[in-house]
Specification:
Elements: E1 2-8, E2 12-15, E3 22-24, H1 51-58, E4 64-67, E5 91-93, E6 98-100, H2 106-116, E7 119-124, H3 131-142, H4 148-155, E8 166-169, H5 184-201, E9 206-210, H6 222-231, E10 237-244, H7 251-279, E11 286-294, H8 299-308, H9 324-339, E12 344-350, E13 359-361, E14 367-369, H10 373-382, E15 386-388, E16 391-393, E17 396-397, E18 405-406, E19 408-415, E20 420-427, E21 434-441, E22 448-454, E23 474-475, E24 479-482, E25 485-490, E26 494-500
Parallel strand pairs: 1-21, 3-4, 3-12, 4-7, 7-8, 8-9, 9-10, 10-11, 11-12
Antiparallel strand pairs: 1-16, 2-15, 5-6, 13-14, 15-19, 17-18, 19-20, 20-26, 21-25, 22-23, 22-26, 24-25
Helix pairs in contact: 3-4, 3-5, 5-6, 6-7, 7-9, 9-10
Bound molecules: alpha-L-arabinofuranose.
Amino acid sequence: MKARVAVHRDFRISTIDERLYSAFIEHMGRAIYSGIYEPGHPQADANGFRKDVLKFVQDLKVPAIRYPGGNFVSAYNWEDGIGPKDQRPVRLDLAWRSKETNQVGIDDFAIWAEQAGIDMMLAVNLGSRGLEDARNFLEYVNFPGGTTWSDKRRANGRQDPYDVKMWCLGNEMDGPWQIGHKVATEYGRLANETAKAFKGFDPTIETVVCGSSNDGMPTYPEWEREVLEECYENVDYISLHKYFGNKSNDTLNYFGKIEETGRYIQTIGGVIDYVKAKKRAKNDVHICFDEWNVWYHVREDDNRRIKEWDWPEAPALLEENYNFEDALFVAGLLNEFIRRSDRVRIACIAQLVNVIAPIRAEKGGPAWRQTIYYPYQFASLYGRGDALNIAVDAGTYDCRVADDVSYLDVAGVHDKEGGMLTLFIVNRHLTEAADLDVELNGFASPSLSEHLAMEGYDLNQTNGPTAPDRVVPGKGSGVGVEDGRLKGKLKPLSYHVLRLS
Ligand code: AHR
């Protein structure tokens, strides 16, 4: 397959907001308990956090993390998680039909996030609760001292405020499954009042309002319009969520869902523009794609189990075993976020540990990196700078979810300060190698300084506790710069990170 690509250093889409590579972690399953936190584990530190898991997280350079939910937040009392651990109540987690011991709360999580070098992005409960509790939480988290809630924080051991700048106004409020589910205008008004109060407290706070739970919701995209009409001037982002899978075992259609996601982003961009125009508003609202990942391998099984179980504590839930095909998918989806980074400023992989996650950890046992860890890591490490507008001329295909899908998926980021151009490429062709020919415009004598590749694996291959490094990136070969052009062959079903200086 011939694959012509044209890159020009001055043809930019946007300067990427590094929060494009953020993550999400929820109190559910074993994400927190026996995920990041497991006192008594041989790897646990003095606070009970697992050092092996923390190291894998640190290596990802995650800029921000959304916490504590998810569906969980819609019936969560944040005060249950503060103060002496032996006095914290055990509660029913209504979202996931399990028990929440509250052994990790905001002050504990903040310690972990600080160790991991990650900024917190906190969600407030607008399901079972509302503005009153949200503002108390804000006071606890962000006010220096001398008030009821800020003094409680100080008494609990944290003197300085956390100064959290990103606040999510509830979670998936359009979903009938959500505790405290609302209709659009009702939610839009509550979100507006909450955002107003938060910005009144600190105008530099950024707020994220809930968009649809996914683009298949019956109220999509009307939900976005109605919600934004209520709160446009007081929000900075609207959230998008989407989970993916290949249940029909059709690899090309699976990859086509990346194209479909591009349409989803474009549609919401259109709704934002419409509301902005209608309101004669001056401010811009961007997209915060704060839940995305592959979720299908164990989904049906979990749906059945959760209905039958008797409110367990930290049960194994949504523990997806990702294969090589999923790694190729995730690489492509991250490419789409880079290509749409003018609209999508923040995106959060959902989630980070154990629950639909790039990192897994056995209770009392080892931790390992799943296949999808690597494309996420490479995007986070090397995808910072200017997203370039790249032209690709390779073969295309039609599938159920999209037409004209390119077999070659390319995104490029130019880090002007570091003087590096990084190309992220997936050859999606099932059988043909791509005969790559990249025109490099505006780069003086470019040379290939690094080529990383994930290739040659069976699509179903996975990593696991006894084979943690079965599917890993290696040094790529067969690509080089000739007369100012990057040329070479990329194997079918392969992923490449090409770094030029
Ligand atoms: O990430 C798992 C769940 O998916 C979240 O709790 C919810 O927001 C979404 O439906």
